[in-house]
Design a protein that fits this description.
The protein is an alpha/beta fold and about 375 residues long. The protein has two domains: about 120 residues, Response regulator (Rossmann fold, 3-Layer(aba) Sandwich), CATH 3.40.50.2300; about 180 residues, Rossmann fold (3-Layer(aba) Sandwich), CATH 3.40.50. It is about 50% helix and about 15% strand. The strands form two sheets. A six-stranded parallel β-sheet has the order 2-1-3-4-5-11, with helices on both faces. The protein is globular, with a radius of gyration of 25 Å.
């Protein structure tokens, strides 16, 4: 009897230890599962002082806030040249095949079709697509089988037209302000440097022209396009032509890394250039005197927000969300530097314009959802 009791006691202890071990393993597995992983695939490189850097900074902030045991991410810099483009599709395939990422993040119009194919092939994989409209119906029509793209994509967009309206108004008033030493107050000409002629860049342009004309109907806007988002030397040449031959005193660069050439040109010509997507005056302190402010597209903030919602299983996929001035999706950089460069009366005017846009008193035209012909008509009417 005693022997039987001893055996039973030993068995109970073994089961107890096994249960404890199983509990520990379950806890370990749960902890591992709680580590949300994201992959940021850039069809370009970090160091653009623009929205790729903003995306990376947003994910870095989230990792610092939550800790790597709760959230971690990997950045893949795929490059932006024509030679690099051949890597984009296979790189996307590799990350989808890996299967260890809760979400894969890509952005810009150049990645739309690659994303559509991946979303269709890997319906269980979640994606975030930023800075370009993802048209589910259009991609359905493109596929031979006529099947829909799975609703595994969250699409976040930005009202860059709204913040560009503020930049345009500030630029229009600055170019005729005789108190500023970098302008010829007799000329009312401002410049715009775009990367490529697509709907997003045209949305910047539409807001910029509308804001400029709202502030001063006599101001003229000169427009140039680099043809890509990486050639800063070409961007500089185009901007120098505007500054030195076109009478431009104040420019606005919306061209990614290529747009940094406009800032270099502004320094060389002793003119002004508004930055974009990141606080370029802060990132380029040696050139800050020529950068009155920057139009922020808060890509990083929007990605932080989306991932937090997804971690709580509250992010809705298969839809597009557009963030503007009212929800801090876009903003004009203010603060001490802005106050130093931009006169008080112009700052006050711009502040009121921002309130009027948020309240709906001012409605900013947009390229979103428009055909190329409709966009052209809007620009022609504003000019």
């Amino acid at each position: 009897m005693k022997k039987l009791l001893s055996v039973l006691l030993i068995m109970a202890m073994v089961f107890s230890l096994s249960a404890c071990g199983a509990g520990d393993n379950a806890k370990d597995n749960k902890d591992a599962a709680d580590n949300y992983k994201a992959a940021l695939l850039l069809n370009g490189n970090l160091g653009d002082k623009s929205f790729f850097d903003s995306a990376n900074e947003g994910l870095t902030r989230l990792q610092d806030e939550l800790g790597k045991d709760k959230f971690s991410f990997k950045v893949e810099q795929m490059g932006a040249t024509s030679q690099d483009e051949s890597k984009w599709q296979p790189t996307m395939e590799d990350y989808c095949e890996d299967g260890k990422y809760d979400v894969i993040i890509v952005g810009t119009w150049q990645m739309a079709e690659i994303l559509a194919k991946a979303a269709k092939k890997y319906p269980e994989q979640k994606f975030i697509f930023f800075d370009e409209t993802f048209d589910f119906d259009a991609f359905k029509a493109k596929f031979e089988d006529g099947e829909e793209v799975p609703k595994n994509i969250y699409n976040v967009l930005y009202k860059q037209n709204e913040v560009s309206f503020l930049v345009g108004a500030a630029a229009a008033l600055m170019t005729s302000d005789a108190t500023l030493d970098k302008v010829n107050a007799n000329d009312k000409v401002i410049g715009f440097l775009g990367g490529m002629e697509n709907a997003v860049i045209k949305d910047f342009l539409i807001g910029y022209i509308q804001g400029a004309k709202y502030a001063d109907p006599e101001v003229q806007v000169q427009t140039a396009y680099v043809g890509n988002f990486f050639d800063s030397a070409a961007g500089k040449d185009l901007a120098l032509t505007q500054y030195q031959s076109g009478g431009v005193d104040v420019g606005y660069n919306v061209a990614g890394s290529a747009g940094l050439g406009q800032i270099e040109a502004a320094v060389e010509a002793d003119k002004y250039a508004f930055g974009v997507d990141s606080d370029q005056a802060a990132l380029l302190p040696d050139m800050a005197a020529n950068i009155p402010s920057s139009a922020l597209k808060n890509v990083g903030n929007s990605l932080e927000r989306a991932i937090k919602l997804d971690m709580e299983e509250k992010l809705e996929f298969g839809v597009a969300e557009t963030l503007g001035l009212s929800d801090q999706g876009v903003e004009l950089v203010k603060g001490e530097h802005y106050e130093t460069v931009v006169p008080q009366n112009i700052r006050d005017y711009v502040e009121q314009l921002e309130k009027d846009i948020i309240s709906g008193k001012i409605v900013v035209e947009t390229a979103a959802g428009k055909t190329d012909e409709e966009i052209k008509d809007i620009i022609d009417q504003l000019q």
